[in-house]
């Protein structure tokens, strides 16, 4: 065993792997970074297993350090029944934040409802991505993207067991006693009964809050406003506006008990369009 300190590497020549004193593996040469290395291009430990759908499968990840601020892990999975699944993850740090892209793609035989091959090919895969970034001292923005080609891909290839994928884009900021958040959401249902046409697209959801300074008696006033818009390609669309004002007065008695006197006024307005026609139901 040779520890090359200048190259931060440990080399092995004529190495044996023994279990309870019995040699089970041999290699004429083997090398790996020493413990002082935080990241270095090279092979990672493989993962393997077997399943009814894929047969025997093995994943052989390979890490590539592109620069101190970005890297990538290539992770192809070789299966005995479904061929090769190409996958990987890219990570990047910028001056204002960071983002990650995790994706996979494979081409498999198309099958009918009886699981028989049709002779055609299907492209299947997924993309998961996320990021967050600063916008000056008081603001930031970010995103989460999660999509797949079909309902069963994630579970079949052991990517995720989620039955709903949620994508989000947001901008938020706070300054003093004020806070503002603007969100947009999209959903992909992966259950058999999920209908893509009725899945809502939230664009936007806006929430604002302001807390005033305490009064001479310790009372505070809070103002909240929010708006929400839901759109569907096959179903009703909804818009909502909510306004509320809350006044709170704390009171402490001589025996140490604390009471809060609270008063609130709230109003909500709704607008609904594209409602289904139920006038002929039961006829």
Sequence of secondary-structure elements = EEEEEEEEEEEEEHEEEEEE
C-alpha end-to-end distance: 86 Å
Specify the overall morphology: extended
Percent of residues in helices comes to: under 10%
Q: Helix count?
A: 1
Main sheet characteristics: 16 strands, antiparallel
Q: Which percent range describes the beta-strand content?
A: over 45%
Global structural class: mainly beta
Q: How would you characterize this protein structure?
A:
With 283 residues, this protein is mainly beta. It has one helix at 153-156; strands at 2-4, 9-19, 22-33, 42-43, 47-51, 55-59, 62-67, 70-74, 77-79, 83-93, 97-111, 117-135, 139-148, 164-175, 178-189, 201-211, 220-231, 237-252, 258-273. The chain has a 16-stranded antiparallel sheet that branches. Strands 1-2-3 form a three-stranded antiparallel sheet, with no helix packed on it. The longest helix has 4 residues, at 153-156.
Q: What tags apply to this protein structure?
A:
about 280 residues; extended; about 0% helix; 16-stranded antiparallel β-sheet; mainly beta; single chain; 1 helix; three-stranded antiparallel β-sheet
In short:
The chain is mainly β and 283 residues long.
Q: What's the helix and strand layout?
A:
Blueprint: E1 2-4, E2 9-19, E3 22-33, E4 42-43, E5 47-51, E6 55-59, E7 62-67, E8 70-74, E9 77-79, E10 83-93, E11 97-111, E12 117-135, E13 139-148, H1 153-156, E14 164-175, E15 178-189, E16 201-211, E17 220-231, E18 237-252, E19 258-273
Antiparallel strand pairs: 1-2, 2-3, 4-7, 5-6, 6-9, 7-8, 8-10, 9-10, 10-11, 11-12, 12-13, 13-14, 14-15, 15-16, 16-17, 17-18, 18-19
């Amino acid at each position: 065993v040779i520890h090359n300190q200048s190259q931060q590497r440990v080399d092995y020549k004529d190495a044996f792997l023994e279990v309870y004193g019995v040699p089970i593996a041999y290699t004429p040469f083997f090398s790996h970074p020493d413990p002082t290395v935080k990241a270095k291009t090279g092979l990672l430990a493989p993962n393997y297993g077997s399943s009814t759908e894929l047969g025997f499968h093995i994943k052989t990840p390979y890490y590539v350090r592109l620069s101190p601020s970005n890297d990538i892990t290539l992770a192809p999975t070789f299966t005995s029944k479904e061929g090769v699944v190409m996958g990987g993850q890219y990570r990047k740090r910028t001056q204002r934040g960071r983002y990650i892209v995790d994706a996979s793609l494979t081409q498999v035989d198309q099958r009918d409802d009886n699981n028989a091959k049709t002779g055609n090919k299907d492209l299947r895969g997924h993309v998961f991505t996320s990021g967050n970034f600063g916008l000056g001292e008081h603001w930031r923005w970010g995103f989460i993207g999660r999509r797949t080609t079909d309902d069963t891909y994630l579970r079949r290839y052991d990517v995720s067991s989620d039955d709903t994928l949620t994508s989000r884009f947001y901008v938020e900021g706070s300054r003093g006693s004020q806070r503002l958040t603007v969100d947009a959401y999209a959903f992909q249902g992966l259950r058999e009964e999920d209908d893509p046409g009725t899945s809502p697209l939230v664009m936007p959801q806006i929430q604002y809050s302001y807390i005033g300074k305490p009064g001479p008696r310790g009372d505070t006033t809070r103002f909240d406003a929010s708006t929400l818009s839901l759109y569907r390609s096959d179903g009703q669309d909804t818009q909502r506006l909510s306004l509320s004002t809350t006044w709170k007065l704390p009171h402490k008695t001589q025996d140490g008990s604390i009471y809060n006197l609270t008063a609130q006024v709230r109003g909500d307005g709704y607008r609904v369009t594209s409602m289904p026609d139920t006038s002929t139901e039961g006829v």
